[in-house]
Sequence to fold (451 residues):
Amino acid sequence: MPTDRRPEFFKGAQLKVAIIGCGYVGLPLALRFAEAGHKVTGYDTDPEKINMLNAGRSYIEHIQQTKIQQFVNSRHFSATTDFSRLKEADAILICVPTPLNEYREPDLSYVEQTALSIQPHLQRGQLVVLESTTYPGTTEELVLPILEKSGLRCPIAAGPENENVPVDFFLAFSPEREDPGNKQYGLAQIPKVVGGVNAPSGRAAVSLYAQVVAKVIPVSSTRAAEMAKLLENIFRCVNIALVNELKLLSMRMGVDIWEVIDAAATKPFGFMPFYPGPGLGGHCIPVDPFYLSWKAREYDFSTRFIELAGEINTSMPYHIVDAIAAALNNHKKSVKGSKILVLGVAYKKDVDDLRESPTLKIMQILQERGANFDYNDPYFPQLRKMRHYNYEHMKSVPLSAETLASYDAVVIATDHSSYDYAAIVDAAKLVVDTRNATRRVLRHRNKIVQC
Ligand SMILES: NC(=O)c1ccc[n+]([C@@H]2O[C@H](COP(=O)([O-])OP(=O)(O)OC[C@H]3O[C@@H](n4cnc5c(N)ncnc54)[C@H](O)[C@@H]3O)[C@@H](O)[C@H]2O)c1
Fold:
């Protein structure tokens, strides 16, 4: 018996919304649904996060504690590790990680595990939406078969003749476009792309999201929605690689690439500025393009732009360390044995996120080359063991003129707004600037090496 619940049901008030994965994507989404008056339950496998959330505490710097407290107190938000409660939900939104494994291939184990945890509790009329970034085909090829093991059906059906295909539950894909720390565009202002496994699923997901974002963009399939997210991130990855390569050339030519970008950006059409840096960071841009390269192999297709961009972006931390070595050389010093202070471990400015941060790679190369290095980052008083790196013994060095002066070189790896760049240049012997953070510093320019 197909469900008698219409897709338009999800236009309704006070829906029960389950968010699986309470991280950088899931938590803001949960709070947004709570703000819109729905009853939200956050699910996570990490009991520590669940306890903090239920106590009204935030573990992500840019997510306000007061907001969590407000919705916990008003009973619009609670969190749990008990997945059997999923049967109470009207809509289930999946926001779990999609990393690469050690062979740089898609690791869909979190998505698979989540589908397996939903399946025994799946109810007729529920809407399930995958939000995790992934290759085209994931929703239909991985999530759908697991959910259909429940005995309930959601047929893959495109085309106008299938507008009202009977379904037991609704299944869609809608990529998250969260940009942590972006003060201009919050979740509510960012349009959301939605594609259903069939038309009723698409309409159900559009109805739901239209309640919490300014604009919903329906597309014809989950594959189109999955691919749209990858196109957005590949676009960034390729353009960042392009500008990184042009930076290397400009440096050889004695041209200031940042001046060039600012000049080009005055063109009112057909140009969008991207900025060079020490390499790619964050959970998305260094990872997502490789989801598509991997899937492309199934079609005997090689994604050359993605590979080339990956090659250039991956080489950037090595370039930075070479630039540090050259700068020390000018001071008659070698990397081996030099004291180096690295400023900023976060992958970008003003965020408490160091996933895939190029600084971690720079520190690893410095270590291999025998440097004595420390770091400072206001967002990370100390470092923990990570998947690829182990800096758990390291603590952020407090900044003072004396400390800065005690290092052979100070490397600006992340351009946090809280740093006083003029004071840093005043005090340091040598500053290696990977972000053009010192552009407004007028004194002691001879101490600054841009790279
Ligand atoms: N962080 C971003 O800026 C961003 C932006 C757009 C898209 N995305 C995508 O969104 C997805 C989630 O990313 P994120 O940054 O929120 O990750 P995250 O690591 O911050 O959060 C994921 C959460 O899922 C939990 N989790 C893991 N396995 C689980 C399971 N089986 N059941 C329940 N919870 C589980 C983890 O404990 C964690 O709290 C990824 O696919 C990512 O590519 C991230």
